[in-house]
Structure formats: structure tokens, C-alpha cells
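Regression test case RT-17, inverse folding.

Input:
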């Protein structure tokens, strides 16, 4: 049975393939279904879903929310969002306004460090939501750094000289937003929260109480041991298994669509189980 990929990004946020190109790439990769889960936007979903019908690839409408918690920032993927939800659109607009302020602050910090980069430069590169990858792209193009890794390590990453933390929504707000559009909330890349499995277990349990319904068991950087532990968490907290590559295109060159770093395979049965769960609740698929 063909593979699926339930975590991908397009140019609507910080990916490098536009929504239609992403769907076509999924077809070429032999994927039966993908979820497009751009950060804080649903702008690419209508075009992607239309392309999916034409290409014969099932497109699950999604999004990804950044959430502030006591253990740091984590990401919640919402699957089967309503692409036209006014509640989500309003919330995303507020998030984008905060992101604009953050981006301007980081550009200002880079300039103070003597780097020749402006917001106009970044805006010319971005077709969707502007983020740090767009800044890194300009820095590489101008020869200010040798590659993306250097841009993030020296300037844009958490310990970088120009870094400004995100002003993220709370977990309870994120679940409330996703409930408003009947989406299924999935904890993305759990091991990026913490490599300490005691901490991870505790956080997953807390999120379950707030409304978490699934966890990415299968992810690009998950080892066999990590997959096994995530399966245990899914059983312990009665969560659905999900999985995806977190594909962004050439800004993450080591991650391939559907295959992650080469060994990822998300079986179609994962999608079947998610659909069965939603149908049991009377929700659309």
C-alpha cells in the first residue's frame, strides 16, 4: 500500500514549493495522500485541494500552530481544518502581526551587527508567511554566511546573536481554535520538545487533558527507539498515531517528501485510523 505524509509545508508559509507544486511532487513521489500543514495560515489549501483532485492525490487540509508551554515552544498540527474558518483566519492574522514585529526586530538586530539585509530584501523572497528561513536565504545569497546552518547557528537560531523569541499562543488557546473548526489536533515532532522521556511523558499527559488527540509517532528524525516510545505514549494516553516528514523543500535539503531522511514510511493505515476516529465522532473527512 502506498505511503502518506501528514506534515508538509508550502510557500504559503516557509516551504519552497507552492501548494500545487507540492501536490504534484507528492504524486511523483508515489504518495497516496498528504496533509499540507503550513504555519499559522490556510492560504494554500484551496489550490492544493483542487490540485489533489486533478492529480489523484488526497489532500488533507491542515495547519501548524506554535504553542508556548512551561517546557518551551511546541507545535500542534491540526488535520481537517476548515480552510475558510473565519475564527482561524482572525487568529492567524493576529499571529502574523506578532510575527511581523518579531521579524522587524530580528532584521534590526542583524543590521546592528553590521549585516547588509533589509525587510525589503526578505519580502522580495517570500510568497507567504515571512520567517527566519527567508532571512537565511538572503544572507546566503549576499554571501553574509556560507549556508543555512551557519545563518541559524550564528544569528537566527535560539542561541543566535539576532534571535528574538516568538510571542506564541497558549496550548489551551490552540486547542480551542482547532476545536472551533472540528480539526484533529496532533502533537508534532515530540522529541523536539525534550529528549528526556520523563518530561515528554508528563507533557503529553498534560496536553491530553487539554484536548490532544494524536501524536506524530513517525517523523523524519525519529529513531526506531523513538518510534517505539511514541507508540507507548499513544497507547498510554489513548492517542492516535500520525506521521510526516515536515518537508519544507530546499531549506531543509536533508528531508525528502514522504521519506524524511531516507527511512521514513508512514503507512496508509495511519490515515485510515484517523478517518475512522473522526467518523466515530461524526466529523467530516
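Golden output:
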Amino acid at each position: 500500500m502506498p505511503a502518506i505524509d501528514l506534515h508538509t509545508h508550502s510557500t504559503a508559509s516557509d516551504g519552497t514549493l507552492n501548494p500545487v507544486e507540492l501536490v504534484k511532487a507528492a504524486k511523483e513521489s508515489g504518495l497516496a495522500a498528504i496533509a499540507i500543514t503550513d504555519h499559522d495560515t490556510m492560504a494554500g489549501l484551496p489550490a492544493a485541494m483542487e490540485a489533489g483532485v486533478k492529480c489523484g492525490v488526497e489532500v488533507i487540509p491542515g495547519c501548524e500552530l506554535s504553542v508556548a508551554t512551561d517546557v518551551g515552544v511546541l507545535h500542534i498540527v491540526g488535520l481537517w481544518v476548515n480552510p475558510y474558518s473565519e475564527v482561524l483566519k482572525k487568529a492567524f492574522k493576529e499571529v502574523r502581526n506578532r510575527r511581523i514585529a518579531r521579524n522587524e526586530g530580528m532584521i534590526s538586530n542583524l543590521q546592528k551587527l553590521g549585516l547588509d539585509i533589509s525587510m525589503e530584501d526578505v519580502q522580495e523572497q517570500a510568497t507567504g508567511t515571512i520567517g527566519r528561513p527567508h532571512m537565511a536565504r538572503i544572507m546566503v545569497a549576499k554571501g553574509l554566511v556560507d549556508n543555512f546552518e551557519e545563518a541559524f547557528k550564528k544569528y537566527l537560531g535560539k542561541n543566535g546573536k539576532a534571535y528574538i523569541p516568538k510571542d506564541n499562543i497558549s496550548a489551551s488557546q490552540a486547542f480551542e481554535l482547532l476545536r472551533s473548526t472540528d480539526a484533529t489536533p496532533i502533537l508534532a515532532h515530540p522529541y523536539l520538545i525534550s529528549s528526556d522521556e520523563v518530561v515528554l511523558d508528563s507533557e503529553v499527559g498534560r496536553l491530553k487533558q487539554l484536548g490532544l488527540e494524536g501524536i506524530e509517532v513517525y517523523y523524519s528524525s525519529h529513531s526506531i527507539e523513538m518510534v517505539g516510545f511514541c507508540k507507548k505514549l499513544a497507547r498510554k494516553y489513548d492517542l492516535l498515531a500520525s506521521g510526516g516528514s515536515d518537508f519544507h523543500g530546499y531549506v531543509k535539503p536533508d528531508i525528502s517528501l514522504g521519506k524524511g531522511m531516507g527511512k521514513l514510511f508512514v503507512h496508509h493505515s495511519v490515515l485510515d485510523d484517523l478517518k475512522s476516529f473522526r467518523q466515530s465522532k461524526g466529523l467530516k473527512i
